[in-house]
Amino acid sequence: MIRSDYARFPWSSRRTGRSPRRTGGRSAPKRAVPTGPAGHGGGMTTSQPGPAGHSADRGERRPQTLLVLGATGDLADRLLLPGLGRLVASGTRPHLTLLGSGMDNWDDERWRRRVTDAFAGAGATGPRVKEMIRTTCYLPADVTREEDLRRLLANCHDQLVIFFALPPAITARAAAALTRIGLPPGTRLMLEKPFGTDAVSARSLNDLLARLVPEEQIYRIDHFLGKSTVMNILGLRYANRIFEPILSSAHVACVDIVFDETLGIAGRAGYYDGAGALVDMIQSHLLQVLALIAMEPPPTLAAQDLRGRKAQVLRATRVWGDDPATWSRRGRYAAGEINGKRLLGYADESGVDPSRGTETFAEVVLSVDTWRWAGVPFRLRTGKGLAARRKEAVVTFKQPPRVPSGLTGYDQPDRLRIGFGPDRLGLDVNINGPGHPLELSQVHLVADFGPGELPPYGEVLRGAFDGDPTLSVRGDTAEDCWRIIAPVLECWRAGAVPLPEYPAGSCGPEDSLLTAAPGTATDG
Ligand SMILES: NC(=O)C1=CN([C@@H]2O[C@H](COP(=O)(O)OP(=O)(O)OC[C@H]3O[C@@H](n4cnc5c(N)ncnc54)[C@H](OP(=O)(O)O)[C@@H]3O)[C@@H](O)[C@H]2O)C=CC1
Ligand SMILES: O=C1O[C@H](COP(=O)(O)O)[C@@H](O)[C@H](O)[C@H]1O
């Protein structure tokens, strides 16, 4: 087994990519009218120089306020605050203030406890972390109400970065309310996935946001783009001579992108029951991974080049044979046991409406209709409540054109594995085994990726604070990802694909496409 200590996030030591400024286009948004008492920070700045939207200065030099909407939710607790804590602990954000807001009537004390625990759990310590905890405040608000939003904005100062850690429908309503109020110039917006609830709502949300701030101030978050292994796909493909030339239909039998979780929905019914596995994972994260694996080489890793290449390949992506009834699967976990722990059936989870028929397991086979990839199935799969975690992209190569007579034991294709947890690169190759010199056996070469400098949410937050949209999703791409999965959603709504139950702790529905789909046969 080969282990490398130096398989790193390609940008960790040289993050200089700046987005080019766009010119022209929009008029300055109206400023918010502060209405409440400037309780926590003296009211928002109303006299920033320059036209709205031209915010190319590096965040670390300019005081910024991060306002988290949905601060009492699961995302903020488990992922966002820990990522923020690590970023702050790194010392690069000396002038950052944190404000939390949720529907619940928390007070500052309770919020500070939440922040303290999240930072401690992430190992974020030091004077800057202490200072952030000391100064952070909590403001209850219903963000669909204009008067609440006005009160929130009145408490914000410095350059404002608003993180919408909200269910998608609430995000859309909050954005609509904000268009009636206006935002301080230079405000940056960070929006969680799923972006909208379908292609039409994603388009409307894009239109709404465009009325608020220019595109370069909008950060559509997909935290998989902040995972160091995901971004290392770029290093693997473009900083080595040996992989890129064979990543094409001439050599590849199929590509599997798999994200199997043992977790159930962990109390997130309020969001998850309206989304389901296809929207929660495939429409966003797994399509982003597909884009990085399948795109053409960008000339640079600057936002414009990288996002352009991803957009191009996603535009060429659709359901295999335009036949979602054949090339998709879904399922829902029933009660079962995982690692000795009992998991309730999904339908019995509190907050779930079983009649919605929400899936906790989804598979779909896609084609990427480009010269490079025509005929190669991309099989995307995700599920909750499964027997084992499996989080990887696997490129399976075709058989060699001819294995010479006399070499025996060839029965497995070569595979390249990119693991997203554990973060590692693997190569399955056939070599002569320990016995007879002409008898083949397969070995698995493994290199661990070094941990990223920051957790994924630390990375995506850093991008937004720096004004660098490289790790966020472009508006047209967010819409296009809905276009890709829309036929599957329609077909499921029409009942054309069954929704079998699988026991929690099992391998999922029996007729998985990973064993039945095109690409299973590995001959060339
Ligand atoms: N949880 C995760 O692992 C991940 C989640 N996401 C995304 O993050 C988003 C939020 O998910 P998650 O945190 O899990 O959901 P939760 O249901 O746990 O949290 C939702 C949050 O939104 C708040 N909220 C709801 N309605 C309003 C309103 N009208 N005004 C103000 N606040 C409101 C809730 O406040 P209160 O509780 O006070 O009512 C709560 O803080 C989703 O889009 C999801 O896709 C993305 C990646 C991972
Ligand atoms: O966005 C989401 O991602 C998580 C998986 O991401 P990880 O970084 O925690 O591994 C998934 O569990 C969740 O359902 C989904 O909303």
TrEMBL record:
- Here the segments flagged for biased composition (Basic residues) are 15-24
Q: In which pathway does it act?
A: Carbohydrate degradation; pentose phosphate pathway; D-ribulose 5-phosphate from D-glucose 6-phosphate (oxidative stage): step 1/3
The residues that the entry says bind NADP(+) are D142, V143, K193
Chain intervals for the UniProt region annotation (Disordered): 1-60
Please name the Pfam families in this protein's record.
Answer: G6PD_C, G6PD_N
Which intervals hold domain Glucose-6-phosphate dehydrogenase C-terminal?
A: 236-512
Q: Which NCBIfam families match?
A: PRK12853.1-3
Q: What is this protein identified as?
A: Glucose-6-phosphate 1-dehydrogenase
Q: What is the lineage of its organism?
A: Bacteria, Bacillati, Actinomycetota, Actinomycetes, Micromonosporales
